[in-house]
Amino acid sequence: MRKFVYQFSEGSKDMKVLLGGKGANLAEMTNIGLPVPPGFTIGTDACKDYNENDQTLSEEIFEEVLTHLKLLEEKTGKQFGSNENPLLVSVRSGAPVSMPGMMDTILNLGLNDKAVQGMIHQTKDARSSLDSYRRFIQMFGDVVRGIPSYKFEEALSLIKKQKGYAQDTELTPDDLEKLITTYQELYLEHGSEPFPQDPLTQLRLAVQSVFDSWMNPRAVVYRRLNDIDPNFGTAVNIQAMVFGNTGNKSGTGIAFTRNPSTGEKAVFGEFLINAQGEDVVAGIRTPEDISKLKSHLPDAYHELMGTCELLENHYLDMQDIEFTIEKEKLFVLQTRNGKRTAQASVQVAVDLVHEGKISRDEAIKRIDTKQIDQLLHPTFEKKALEKGEVLATGLPASPGAASGKIYFDASEAVAAADLGQKVILVRNETSPEDIEGMAKSEAILTAHGGMTSHAAVVARGMGKCCVAGCSEIDINEKEKTIVTNSGITLREGDAVSLDGSTGKVYLGEILLTEAEIGGHFDELMEWVNEVKQLDIRVNADTPNDLLTAIHFGAEGIGLCRTEHMFFHEERIAYVRQMIVAESLEERKRALAHLKEMQKEDFIQLFRIAKGRPVNIRLLDPPLHEFLPKAEKDLERLAQDTGKTLAEIKKRVNELAESNPMLGHRGCRLAVTYPEIYKMQAEAIMESAVQIHDEGQKVFPEIMIPLVSSKEELAFVKQEIKESVQAIFDRERVLLPYDIGTMIEIPRACVTADEIAKEAQFFSFGTNDLTQLTYGFSRDDAGKFLPSYSERGILETDPFQTLDTAGVGALVEMAVSRGRMANPNMKMGVCGEHGGDPRSIHFFHKLGLKYVSCSPFRVPIARLAAAQVVLEEREQLQKV
Amino acid sequence: MRKFVYQFSEGSKDMKVLLGGKGANLAEMTNIGLPVPPGFTIGTDACKDYNENDQTLSEEIFEEVLTHLKLLEEKTGKQFGSNENPLLVSVRSGAPVSMPGMMDTILNLGLNDKAVQGMIHQTKDARSSLDSYRRFIQMFGDVVRGIPSYKFEEALSLIKKQKGYAQDTELTPDDLEKLITTYQELYLEHGSEPFPQDPLTQLRLAVQSVFDSWMNPRAVVYRRLNDIDPNFGTAVNIQAMVFGNTGNKSGTGIAFTRNPSTGEKAVFGEFLINAQGEDVVAGIRTPEDISKLKSHLPDAYHELMGTCELLENHYLDMQDIEFTIEKEKLFVLQTRNGKRTAQASVQVAVDLVHEGKISRDEAIKRIDTKQIDQLLHPTFEKKALEKGEVLATGLPASPGAASGKIYFDASEAVAAADLGQKVILVRNETSPEDIEGMAKSEAILTAHGGMTSHAAVVARGMGKCCVAGCSEIDINEKEKTIVTNSGITLREGDAVSLDGSTGKVYLGEILLTEAEIGGHFDELMEWVNEVKQLDIRVNADTPNDLLTAIHFGAEGIGLCRTEHMFFHEERIAYVRQMIVAESLEERKRALAHLKEMQKEDFIQLFRIAKGRPVNIRLLDPPLHEFLPKAEKDLERLAQDTGKTLAEIKKRVNELAESNPMLGHRGCRLAVTYPEIYKMQAEAIMESAVQIHDEGQKVFPEIMIPLVSSKEELAFVKQEIKESVQAIFDRERVLLPYDIGTMIEIPRACVTADEIAKEAQFFSFGTNDLTQLTYGFSRDDAGKFLPSYSERGILETDPFQTLDTAGVGALVEMAVSRGRMANPNMKMGVCGEHGGDPRSIHFFHKLGLKYVSCSPFRVPIARLAAAQVVLEEREQLQKV
Q: What is annotated as the active site (chains A, B) (predicted)?
């Protein structure tokens, strides 16, 4: 017989896949002797069994649950449904990977009309017992029968209004008994069945609901957003209840062993007196800082501090601990590695190294590349900020700064963001339904909830700015207004700016400035450099981009797109003259102007690069991209060139293409008009000579795009070499430089052994290669890729993460064939995958020399490049 | 020391690569005892040496020539430059592969002011000797110094006019002496040097000129058109002259051992009395039929007939023999396998099998697949022809029929053809400069020249209709007019029709009807079927195409493009309604109409196919291809669908794509709108069920286009299978059918092992695969491929002949990976390469099951498929 159910004492922290994260940690904590309420875990295998059998909970499994329930009754001395000493349990989901708030939890299960009397008998506290019962009915109705919570809330509000109560705590036992009756009627009305009085029926329904919640839409979206395997399934933890809502010596809270926002080494947390755990997370009441617990319940506080230290030393990472104090006795309900901001992530990891708890390698492994972005994001420009009008201040829930237009509804925020707007999502409090809206927004602002509210936790996970619990504003979600204390009213579409590090909300947009990094981050990145093998270069076309990238650790330019230099206003006229030229003479005249302009750019880049390699791609896009469309621009071009408007229009028409991506572009331009690349090669080498004459080092790499055959490369290369040699002869100098090719056409991969004979380097242009390998146009795929994702045909967007099975196989072929012909060939990547961590893993394993990415992704790429080395070492050790 | 020069007696017919075709045959003929004028051959190695040394004839080689010249003087008893008994030689090019008229020839070399006296002394014929001298100066001037022939012709015309002569033969020795002086003056004037009197200087210059002629532009074009290796080089044959222009007992001619136009077994040829060979080929005088030689010079005639038989039995193929009769003595100057029409090619090969001279396999090998087209080309519709007005009748120089607009200049013909016009090239006589114009024209009409004139030979080689020597019309190339005997004037752009099998020229266009094949052809094709291994299927969308193809031996449909059925006028309205539908319901209503229409088509195709496999590709092109552009069509669509014009325009805009080739098409349509393929699958299987109910066999193959991953195919296949199963369940029947995929995307090749798990067949769509592998759009590549060809970057158009190194390597990968997963998978080709002989060779070697091509290419494909088997067997025997 298969075993599906485990006592906490049977598990350990290494059994996450089977017991879920929560179950494994409850087991671990139980085993290291912490005060964990007793219980057991139904493993994820049972969830799989449930799904494989058309959402049916097998009798076999339920029998096993009952056996363990019996043990729990023995251990606690309580009995399910007893009117003297009833056993109440929590039923919580717990997946192998944390999905906070994504799935369902039921507390106080076991309460019924009889057991609530037993609870009163035990606790001598009718109010809190009855309150627990009415909460249970509400929660059970919501989770098991999908009865909207607001129905229950309405009934609660009604009775409070009738009695003139401000707080829930003012409700008398009588009020609560009436409320329980109303709740049971509501349940019958909306749930089509009476509220089940039998605790075992409650339990069975609750377990089924937890299993069902694995497939609920918000969980599915969350898994998709976070790359979580949908086959894991969830475990169910059944645990004896403890009660934080039994008076003023009771309470509940959350403690982080370090500050999850800054990384500071100090216990950080919040608690609510006389409350159950859900009250803290839901953000309905604003909790107090953990430090206040010390004066309130000093024993429990000190025990909690000790537990924090114990747990951190045990797990060797910052812990996020849920605790409840029942009549001064501390219970630990859960611990897990705490979610944290990027800044905290770096600081905690580096501090743990300094404290001798983990190694440098371990620190590197712990940083999530996805989070690094957050560190590098801009903050407000100081001077602009000084002029900023502060509307309100809330909690600094997730750092960073952002400006955008306010939207009060997640789906409207998504729609606006899809139209290209910068959006700030404004809600009284967020819930898992808002996930997609949060993902698409620049930042989140809430009026309710604390630093550990849903909005705060999720925003930190996303590396997104968040100001939470901003009680100085009044948010009306229906009217779509914010009214500030000072009486200012903002409406949908109005602009605000948020500073997630100070909690300040500003009126209007505020200029942003670049991120400042340093300290812990720099220290970590130095360790990264010692580990990584790939060079990280930058895709940069401007001095500014290059400066930023070098600041972030770029080791050269991997892709300078010369055509970006062609679009400058004062240049485009010459580009257009070059294109419409009807004779070689005419074309050369325009090219001569462009050459001087390009030289200015190259000289600047070479100066900043200080001898780092600068890879310059020669003209790539189809010529018609440069031609004007507006009548007046066409007329100007006619004037500039002395042609008639009709002639210009004819030429524009001639250059139009059915499929420009597959058309007359890249080195094909140089086959028909060799003088274009010759001009560019001259501009590059004359600039290099000038830098050399200034006594500086310079190393240009001339890259020929869109090569499909050796013959094509040989022809174009020969033309370029002649131009370069003429400069060397004239200037009586010889500079080192390389000529190589983009590998971005499938045929180039297949015939890489031939092409390698003509190339000094290969640079994989994985954007175009993905387009051609899939036959997907990036510009058009938006029409069908969403269906591919919905139907599970494509797991990830191949334009973001390299498709290793297809595109990757071609890259691999090109690498091995290229090396066959030229074993020492320099190979790198300049497509956007060069900044994607998963893709970087693949490129490292192919033994490439470098990847190149946008400036802000340079640190991410560095980190990913180090992590893959560590991963490899680990695998080697396992073998 | 390397040997560069060979006596005729040192060579044999197997030494073509070294001695050239002409040299090898002169050697062979010499060795079998035929009356060949003595001489020697400078091998192709010398040409290579010449080209490798910057067009310099090495002294070493020239020394060797002089040694052999000495031997020739001894053998003939004549001496170079002697004023008593001078040696005159011909200097002719001769490449390993025949390039008729492409390169240069010089006759009567050795004549100078002194030697001509020696010739007169010897021949006692001052007129013919002086005539030879003046011809030599003209030819030498033309070939060596590039002096235009018309300069010399003008001088000749002038003297004839002054003297009132009609024929060249009326010129007196005095006239000729004057003419020689004039010619030498012309030579000095235009050649910048005096005409060289030293025969050795003449010889050196002539040899150099022949070597130079290998690289002349028309030879380069000819090699490109005929796929001849440009590295072969040419040999030079130096041979003692014999003289057909020494009176009425002398003459020159050409004999084919069989009729090169029909293949009939009877010597066929032409001769001119008192003329040199060039007169026949150049078509300046119209020669007499060979049969007339019998009465004129009976001994020479009988010896010629004996020689024909001897040579055909020796070479076991129809021979094309050049002969000269000098004072009743027959000399054989050249023999080679005779160029022939497709019809003759088939008839000669089959007859030779019947005569027991060659095997069936040899017959198959001898048919040039390129020529087969000609046999299958249409002829005039009989009734239309009866009404046709005959303008004139010329020689039936190359069979077939064609209509088109007349052009008088090759480059204008090319320009008109490039604009899509059907063009007939009209010239007094054609020359090698006209090659490209001839290639682009439907047919060629000349006023001068015989059956062996340049126009006739080249047209037959191209499989193009030609009427030559049509002296009933007067062609004015300058005025661009034809004036007929009956006084009708035609101008550039007027339409005529030519029948190359009767020599008739008709006014206007005449309806064409399909080719009739049978007899010898059918017999040959039966032998072909016994040899070939590949099945040959047809790409057919209509009953007519399928009927034609089955008549030509197609073994099934390899590609039925369902979208072609969508364009019919009465259907397109429903297609458009389907596309602009905004709900599934709306879309399904339009699809229901289309389904009934598609069923009509499929039922017809299945009936004609009679159980042969019918491969139907589901909808492939982007939807916007079906949408209207004209305002009135947009309005109609708005009416049909009850939408506003603005809504329709919006939808049309939405569907526009930047790169439609890489856009929302193929199975991507079925991922977003599964109901489209479901409708098509239903139409196919309901049609199949109906055919089955009629008691006929039926075998549909459902082909899913543009698949890039296994998951994509699995999804679409599942949708289709459900639809098909529903029909089987409803109709209580089970029919065999296959579902498979096009392999036309590089990723599909790379992941073919995965895709094979979901496919019952692979059909390679080599058109799209070539586009994506090269990144070349077929619609746009016209802008740069010509440069690629000019610069030698691309040897052949990859859209015509499969690029085996790149695209072919991907096909090979897909085949081997596909077989790994599914060893018995059915694999074929449905791209246009399926009808290209060289590509068919490659597909056969991959062991594919079939190729599919357009109806008229089916016989070509069959032949190519047999030839590759024979080639393989030959290679196996060699091993």
A: 454 (tele-phosphohistidine intermediate), 830 (proton donor)
Predicted confidence at residue B387, as pLDDT, reads 85
Closest Cα partner for A521 from A268, A867, A313, A262? A262
Separation between Cα atoms, residue A833 and residue A816, nearest integer Å: 20
The pLDDT assigned to B268 comes to: 93
Catalytic site includes residue B190:
no
d(CA A635, CA A648): 8
**Distance, first Cα to last Cα, chain A:** 33
Closest by alpha carbon to B133, among B200, B197, B201, B65?
B197
- Would residue B454 show up in a list of annotated catalytic residues for this protein? yes
Q: Is A436 annotated as a binding residue?
A: no
- How many CB atoms lie under 10 A from the CB of residue B162? 9
Sign of the torsion formed by the C-alpha atoms of B563, B564, B565 and B568: positive
- Helix%, strand%, coil% for chain A, nearest 5: 50, 15, 30
Strand boundaries in A274-328, DSSP class E: 288-289, 319-326
Determine if residue B463 is left, alpha or beta; phi over 0 gives left, psi from -120 to 50 gives alpha, anything else beta. Answer: left
Contact A671 B793 (CB under 8 A): yes
Low-confidence stretches of chain A (pLDDT < 50) are: none
CA distance B556 to B535: 9
Cβ-defined contact of B659 to A803 (cutoff 8 Å)? no
pLDDT, one tens digit per residue, over B379-399 is 788 788 888 899 999 988 887
For chain A, the farthest-separated pair of C-alpha atoms sits apart, in whole angstroms, at 104
For residues A784, A786, A792 and A793, what is the CA-based torsion angle, rounded to 10 degrees?
A: 30
For residue B218, the tally of other CB atoms under 10 A from its CB is: 18
Q: How many CB atoms lie within 10 A of CB B418?
A: 11
Tell me the residue ranges of DSSP E strands in A408-450: 423-427, 443-446
Look up tokens 């040199």; give the residue.
B276
CA distances from B784 to A553, A630, A669, A691, B777 (A): 41, 27, 8, 37, 11
| B242-340 under CATH 3.30.470.20, yes or no | yes
List residues bridging with A557 in a β-sheet: A538, A614
For A780, the closest of B664, B672, B712 (CB atoms) is: B664
Q: What is the pLDDT of residue A786?
A: 81
DSSP β-ladder status, B79-80 and A319-326? unpaired
Task: Report the SS3 class of residue B461.
Answer: helix
Please measure the distance between the N-terminal and C-terminal CA atoms of chain B and give it in whole angstroms: 33
Spans in chain B with pLDDT lower than 70: 1, 101-102, 277-284, 374, 377, 432, 452, 460-463, 514-516, 569
Residues 6+ apart with CB under 8 A from A312: A257, A258, A318, A319
- How far apart CA A149 and CA A169 sit, in angstroms, is 19
Token code pair at residue A331: 């219970």
B132's tokens:
């030879």
Q: Give the other-Cβ count within 10 Å of A835's Cβ.
A: 25
| A-chain residues near B745 (CB < 8 A) | 773-775
Q: Parse chain A into domains and list their residue ranges.
A: 242-340, 378-513, 556-737
Task: Give the pLDDT score at A463.
Answer: 63
CB A278 within 8 A of CB A105: yes
Give the torsion sign (CA, A397, A400, A406, A412). Answer: negative
* CATH code of domain B556-737: 3.20.20.60
CATH number of the structural domain A378-513: 3.50.30.10
How many secondary structure helices (H) and strands (E) does chain A include?
36, 31
Q: What's the pLDDT at B423?
A: 95
B750·A806 Cβ contact <8 A: yes
Which chain A residue lies closest to B753 (C-alpha atoms)? A805
Alpha carbon B209 to chain centroid, angstroms: 28
Q: Rounded distance, CA A552 to CA A856, Å?
A: 8
Angle at A435 between CA A432 and CA A438, to 5 degrees: 130
